[in-house]
Amino acid sequence: MVCESNNKSYLKSQHLKIIGQNTLRGKVKISGAKNSALVLLAASLLTDEKIILDNVPLLTDIEKMGNILKSLGVKLHNKDNQLIIDSKNIFVQELPYELVNGLRASFFCIGALLTRFGEASIPLPGGCNIGKRPINEHINGLRALGAEIIIERDVVKAKLVEKKSKLFGANIRLNCPSVGATETLIMAASLAEGRTVIENAAREPEIQDLCQMLNKMGAEIYDSGKEKIIIDGVQKLHGCSHKVIPDRIEAGTFLIAAAATSSSITVSPVIPNHLEAVLNKLEESGSKIIKKGNSISIKSNKIKAVDIKTAPFPGFPTDLQAPFMALMTIAKGRSKITETIFENRMNHVELLNQMGGSITVKNNIAHINGVKKLRGKTLVGLDLRSSAALIIAALISKSVSHIYGLEHLDRGYENFELKLSKLGVPIQRETSNKIISKTKCKSSESIKKEISEIKAA
Length: 457
Ligand code: UD1
What we know:
This protein is of the alpha+beta class. Helices cover 30% and strands 23% of the residues. The protein folds into two domains: 11-31 and 246-447, Enolpyruvate transferase domain (UDP-n-acetylglucosamine1-carboxyvinyl-transferase, Chain, Alpha-beta prism), CATH 3.65.10.10; 34-243, Enolpyruvate transferase domain (UDP-n-acetylglucosamine1-carboxyvinyl-transferase, Chain).
C-alpha cells in the first residue's frame, strides 16, 4: 500500500453508513501505532543500512511519509504490515511542499537529515485543524545543537555552522514537552558530537519506541520515558529490525465505543500501561476493566458522567478527548472536558450537538449535559479524532447515520469499519456521486473560518 498514490480526493465522496443502537461483541486486533511508525520512518534516514519495520499500520499518513522518503531516493518495499526501508542512495533536496503540507510529522525528518547530511530544507509543515502547531521548540533545540536555521518563503533551511562537520551535544530545556520536538532532537543528537541532555522532554510511549529502535541501531540513549533524556552521540548508526508498538489511541477508541454501547469487548495486543489514564476514567464512569497480559477487556452497562482534562503522557491523551466526549453525551449527569494541549480541538462539539448532544464550550472547556438518546445524522468529520467521535455517536444513535470525512479517518485507523463490522456493527462504506461540503453541516460562521484544508496531526 505504501507509496501507491498521492491523490486521496476520492475519499471525500465516501461515507460510512452506520445503523445505530447495536451492541459490540468480540475481540479487536489492534494495529501498530501510527505516531510511532511515522517517526520510525523518519529515523530510518539516520543510516545507510536496511531497516525492517514490522507491524506498520496501513494508513494514508504512513503512505504519505513513505512518499516523502521516496522523494529523497529511499527505496521502500512492503508486504502486508512489514516495511523494508533502504536509505543507502539518498539525495538531499528540499522536501516537496505538496507532500509535506499534508503531513505534520514530515517535519520530524529535519533532525535526521541535518545530523546525517549536514543540511535539510523542509517547507513549514501543515497542522491538523486543531490549532496553530508551532515549530519553535524544534528550531530552538536544533540551534542549540549548532545548526544555522533560517526560514525563507515558508521553507525551513537548516545547515551546520561553518567549518563544523557535525552537530554538537548541548543541554536543551523544552518550554513545553512537545512530542515532535523531543523526537526531532533525539534523532539529531544521536549522531552529534558528545552528550545532549533534553529536559522537560515528552514521555509518550512513541518516544520510548523511537529510542528503543535507535538503540538497536547503535545509538546511546538513556532514560527515554523520563523527563530528562540523555543522548551520547555516536559516529554511525546501522540497520535493524523493529516491531512498532500497538496503537494505544486506536485501542482507547474501541474501548470507548464499547462503553458507549453498553458492550463487552477485548482489545489486543496492547500495552496496558500506555492506557492507564484512559482506563481509570472508563472505570470511574462505570465500566469494568480486566487487564490480562497484552489484552484489555471491558464490560459496560450504565455510564455516569466524569470530568477529564487532557495532559501530556501519562495524562489523559488529547487524541482521545473527542471520542470520550461522544461517550459523555449519553452519560448520566453533567461532565466537564478540558482541552489543554491544542487550542482548537473542539470541532466535534457542534456535530455532536446536531446528533442530539447537549454541549457548550467556553475557553476550551466543554460542559456536557448527558442526554438519554442521540439521533442518526448525515455529517462530515472535520479531523481525524473528531471523525472517530462521530462514528461512536452514530453507534449510539437511534436510526441510521452517514458519516463523511473518511479522508481524515483513514489517516489514523486501519480497517476501522471492518473491525467494527467484526464486532457486529451493521456498517458499510459507500460512495456517493455528490460530495458533502464540510461547512454544510456547521452553523457557526466563526467555526467555518477555522476549518482549513485537510492536514495531518
Ligand atoms: C503529536 C502527535 C499527535 C498528538 C500530539 C500531542 C504525532 C505524529 N502526532 O503531535 O497525534 O495529538 O503529539 O500528544 O506524533 N508546541 C509548541 N512549539 C513546538 C511544538 C509544539 O508550542 O515547537 C505546542 C503545540 O502547539 C501544542 C503542544 O506543544 O500545543 C503539543 O504539541 P506536540 O506535542 O508537539 O504535538 P505533535 O508532536 O505535533
